[in-house]
Every structure is written in C-alpha cells, then in structure tokens.
Write a structure and sequence with these properties.
Length: about 260
C-alpha cells in the first residue's frame, strides 16, 4: 500500500481544472475500473451526473443513502433515474428507523449537537457499508454552492472510507447546471419546482424565499445556514491535509506515473 495525501494531489487538481465533467468521469472510470461508484442524494447536480453516466454508457453504480425520512418525491426521483437511465442504484439504510432512534435518544435534530449525531447515524454511518469496496466515489459538489464548498477540490481524500472523492462538477456554475438540465431534459426532483432549492430529510428541509441563500432551507430551525450533514468530508473540514492508503499501482495511475518501465 502507498500513502496518498491531499498535498500529493495539488498538481493534479490544478491540471484537472481545465477538464470538463465528462472528461473527469472518463478519467475516474479508466483509473479506478470497477472500484468507483457515484454518490447521489438525488438533487439537481447528482441527477446531472446520473444523466452523464447514462449518455456516456459508463459502467458506474450509484450509491444513495435513504435516511428513512426522505420526501416521497426524492424516492420517486431515484426510481425514475434507475428505470429511465438504466442505472444501478444501491440504496443504503440506517440501522434504526426514526421511530426507534427517537424512542432511544429523543428528537435529535432539534439541537445542534443532536443534528450532528442524527446525521452521523442516518447519513454518514450507512455509507460506511461500502468502505473497502470502492477506491473512489464520485460526488456532485459545486463551488457555486458557496459556504464550505466555495473552495472544494476536484479530487479530495476521504480518510473515513479510505478512498478518493471525485467532484467533476466543481466548476459548473448555476447557469451551466440549469442549461445542462434544460437542454438535456434531465430528470429532477419535482420539489425543486416547489420552492426547495436543495433537498434533504423531510424533518430538516423547507422551501426558501427568492431572496434567501440556497441553503437557508436546510436545518432552518438551527440557523444560520452553515450546517452540513457530514456525508461529504470536505464540507466539514476543507482545510485539513489528510491521507489515504491505496495500492501502489493505483496511486501511480492516479498521479499519472509510468509503471511499465524496465530496469
Ligand atoms: S438531516 Fe435532519 S433528520 Fe436527516 S439525518 Fe440530519 S438531523 Fe437527522
């Protein structure tokens, strides 16, 4: 095994800034083979990625965490993407239902500390089920989302899952995303047209007013629009410089080092 740190990825990330989302998806599939999947919460950006996987005929499964308290429209969107785009969607679940969790721990999502625990139990922990199966997960974070995502790298190490996160859409502006969705008639969650700028659990998501920030509808009861669930490590700690351990030949492929030399 070889150690790969966020610092090791600086030059590659700089080079990748010039690449299109489709080129980055192609790179991910070529580099990681069968050990890469897409991670989606069935929102606009994730759906654009799903559409690209479909049109490029990429052999990529989609991993989805169903917290057990999602809107029915979100589950319907997942099912439409699977059937109409021919995608394999792998749905992960928390150990306990919300009723079981509440009986044991109370209503966690009403306090800042409880929200962290609830998101850990219902979003991050279920994703641990794929630890060791994938060397890379494709996410759909965009710098235009602002906040902690304003400086999101294209490639980020994920120490919890010991894999790379690949963010092909980091440079996609709001206008580019809207155009892509409209021009390609991408399947989207109908709640987006009902005032929901971003969509998570039904307990913690509301519509937003036209003059509010996009994330104002997430954990509105906890204010001031700076809360993240933690399923994307860079949301919580964008400044850290962590490292993962991956096979040497894979690290060489990621960094573009030649490995077929003769002595
Ligand atoms: S978004 Fe709310 S309900 Fe969903 S896991 Fe986080 S705290 Fe719990």
């Amino acid at each position: 095994m070889a150690r790969l740190s966020q610092a090791d990825l600086i030059d590659l990330n700089r080079t990748f800034e010039e690449r299109t989302p489709q080129e980055l998806l192609e790179w991910a599939v070529t580099t990681f083979g069968g050990r890469v999947a897409a991670l989606s919460s069935m929102q606009k950006s994730g759906n654009a990625i799903c559409h690209m996987i479909h049109t490029m005929s990429l052999d990529l499964s989609v991993v989805f965490v169903d917290t057990g308290v999602l809107f029915p429209e979100t589950l319907e969107t997942r099912d439409r993407l699977a059937s109409e785009y021919g995608l394999t969607v792998r749905t992960l679940h928390p150990e306990q239902s919300m009723q079981q969790q509440t009986a044991e721990k109370g209503v966690l999502y009403l306090t800042p500390e409880g929200q962290k625990e609830c998101c850990e139990l219902r979003k991050s922990a279920p994703l641990d089920a794929v630890a060791g199966e994938y060397d890379a997960l494709i996410s759909s974070l965009r710098r235009s989302d602002g906040g902690a995502r304003g400086a999101c790298p294209i490639l980020a190490v994920d120490t919890r899952l010991n894999c790379l996160r690949v963010n092909p859409l980091v440079n996609f502006t709001d206008e580019q995303l809207t155009n892509y969705i409209q021009n390609n008639d991408v399947i989207i969650n109908p709640l987006h047209d009902q005032g929901y700028a971003t969509i998570g659990c039904n307990r913690c998501t509301t519509p937003v007013l036209p003059n509010e920030p996009r994330r104002a509808g997430r954990w509105r009861h906890l204010g001031p629009w700076s809360v993240y669930c933690g399923i994307n490590p860079t949301d919580l700690d964008p400044e850290r410089s962590p490292a993962v351990d991956l096979p040497q030949d894979l690290v060489d492929r990621i960094l573009g080092r030649a490995t077929d030399f003769m002595i």
